[in-house]
Amino acid sequence: MKNTADYIVFIAFLGCFVNLFSQEASISGKVTENGEPLPFVNILLKGTQIGGSTNVDGQYQLSNIASGDYVLLATSMGYIPYQTTLTVKEGESKTVNIILEASAQALDETVVTGTLKPVSRLESPVPVEVYTPTFLKKNPTPSIFDALQNVNGVRPQINCNVCNTGDIHINGLEGPYTLVLIDGMPIVSGLGTVYGLTGIPNSLIDQIEIVKGPASSLYGSEAVGGLINIITKNAITAPEFFADGFVTGWGEYNLDVGSKIEVGKKANMLLGVNYFNYDVPIDNNGDNFTDLTLQDRISIFQKWDFERDDSRILSVAGRFFYEDRWGGEMQWTPEFRGGDEIYGESIYTRRWEILGKYQLPIQEKMLLSLSYNDHSQNSVYGDTQYLADQRIGFAQLTWDKSAGNHDLLFGSAVRYNYYDDNTPATVNADNIWIPSVFAQDEIKLVPKHSFLAGLRYDYDQRHGNIFTPRAAYKWKISDNDIFRINAGTGFRVVNLFTEDHAALTGAREVIITEELKPERSVNVNLNYLKKIYSDNGTFVGIDASAFYTHFSNIILPDYDSNPNQIIYDNLDGKSVSKGISANLDVVFPNGIKFLLGATWQDVSNTENGITQQQILTESITGTWNLSYTFRMLNLSVDYTGNLYGPMRLPLLGDLDPRQEYSPTWSIQNIQFTYKGWNNFEVYGGIKNLLDWTPNKGNPFIIARTNDPFDKNVTFDTNGNAMATPGNPYALTFDPSYVYAPNQGIRGFFGVRYTVF
């Protein structure tokens, strides 16, 4: 009996011993996107019954795995499937962290820009395009202005070959017709139209929402052609620390650094700093002028988010921006600033902004939004000085109310504009208060049909009562097919010197022929969205639009009547922008992803029965983004590019030897990103692969760089330049012939570090 008991004990001990050394393995880890945990992601060992899903913190664990080789698969709707091959040994506890990449058009994002209230992108009656930080990382740039070059139908336009200031065109409309918001606040306008999209740290951006079409009924007179809303990260959910820095072969340095700081139990602060420097004068086209404006700028951003009962909103943010930029003759130094010996354009910009949102502590959804900014500019263009100050205050109260099949929004706003400069056009400083009220009603007619009607009333003491109606219709054909139509009117008051820096170069005399009247417009936009999910996991998204805008009283610069003048007056006729645009988004199960966009547009002005293509406006545009990740190598490749069709360019007369129309040209880039180190990303590549610059095919870009103050130009009695042996083309100095960046091919290298 004793021997039997001993035998049983021995067998049990041996079983435990064997089990100890032949334990089955496990795999665990965390699934994230851009550092944010992803819940409910499906995790599976391919070809087995072993699987599960991530919890609310993005964590997963697979247990009872026998030793062997496996393929680990992670899938979630709206994300590129992830798979990797791994070997599991007996008793091993293996950690595999997974980063999923979103399909830009596959996600049903929450958007706020189209209707001023949070709504599913698919349910919004107004089409809204959404771009995430993942999209921005595919072609890293030092500013949002540059990053938008790969968005279809949106073009960063450089307005001056010397100072390189610019604005954003949507569907062929000039920059001032596009309203730029930060967290829904209209603080980028006037002087900020030129500089407002630089200095916003890309790493602080949560998403960018773009509306192409009328939005004046909600956002006022500047949202005639569309708007761009830059939404910053919430401090509560932001990473603990992040840093992103890169350098280019031209000597450009860009650094983004940020950190989340907990202040007490219910407050979090997000601090971000962006610094950009470029101080290496380069003249590859040989005209003795800088090809790229030298810049030294810093932007400091701080945002506080507070946790409140019932998830009510309370946030306060502020930004300080300072920039010193100059361009001009290669031998220019600051002691020549404002003189007529060496030509240079030097701009000192100081700007600060504050904005906040507070949801009232009542049962109704009422939100108070406030913002204020102060912008000071000290600049010289050759020997022409331009000093300007602008202050804009904004307050808005909205009430979001649902009643039956009506989704209502009521609001009241007041805007304060102060503007003063030293130009002859500003005799007295503007000091304007503009009160507004607006209402919007989205009616669900039947389950698949809805109609939105809106009306805004503004009172401008210069122009009296202003009404801007708006209407939108949505037909949800199916969950994956949506048709929308939007229509609205616009009203805009123009300030030439804050919006058109061609007027400040000193190269042409500015002529204002009459008291300028406000511009008015009517805009219609049709949109069709279709999503296709195939059985093999391929996703296809199609987003197509047709647009038409008719302007009356439009104010456009006339470069043609007199080559030495820019003449501004209200167009005695009409201006029309029309076209079609489409985006195609495809994601294959193997991880190959491409986004292709194309736009055809016809922007023309008709006066005295003569129709002419609008100057500096392209006929066709194309953008693309091709991406693939080699999972085994932790290496991603992104090939991005754009293409622009012919645009009419400003010449200085019949003898000007430069091309009247630009060629079709393209800027293409490639980037490689390695993600094999914990918390680190290393990236590098080449920008402008084709080395395209606008001097190709042109004898020169900037006219008469050898005599920028026109000291050796002979003029006739009408003030027109005359052809002489020293000036055979009858030219004057002019840097306004610009349609593409002068910056050629260059490499870049960068590192990102993030702690969650």
From TrEMBL:
Q: What is its main location?
A: membrane
Any one GO biological process: siderophore transmembrane transport
Q: Which PANTHER family does the UniProt entry name for this protein?
A: TONB-DEPENDENT OUTER MEMBRANE RECEPTOR, TONB-DEPENDENT RECEPTOR
Q: Which GO terms describe its cellular component?
A: cell outer membrane
Q: What positions does the domain TonB-dependent receptor plug occupy?
A: 122-226
List UniProt keywords, sorted A-Z.
Answer: Cell outer membrane, Membrane, Receptor, TonB box, Transmembrane, Transmembrane beta strand, Transport
Q: Taking every annotated instance into account, which residue ranges of this chain make up the domain TonB-dependent receptor-like beta-barrel?
A: 278-689
- Which organism encodes this protein? Flagellimonas olearia
Say which family it is in.
Belongs to the TonB-dependent receptor family.
Q: Could you confirm whether the keyword Transmembrane appears in this record?
A: yes
Single GO MF descriptor: siderophore uptake transmembrane transporter activity
Q: How does the protein associate with the membrane?
A: Multi-pass membrane protein
Question: Does the record carry Membrane as a key word?
Answer: yes
- InterPro entries from the UniProt entry: Beta-barrel_TonB, Beta-barrel_TonB_sf, CarboxyPept-like_regulatory, Plug_dom, Plug_dom_sf, TonB-dep_rcpt-like
What Gene3D superfamilies does the annotation carry? Carboxypeptidase-like, regulatory domain, TonB-dependent receptor, beta-barrel domain, TonB-dependent receptor, plug domain
This chain's protein is named: TonB-dependent receptor
Q: Where does this protein reside within or beyond the cell?
A: Cell outer membrane
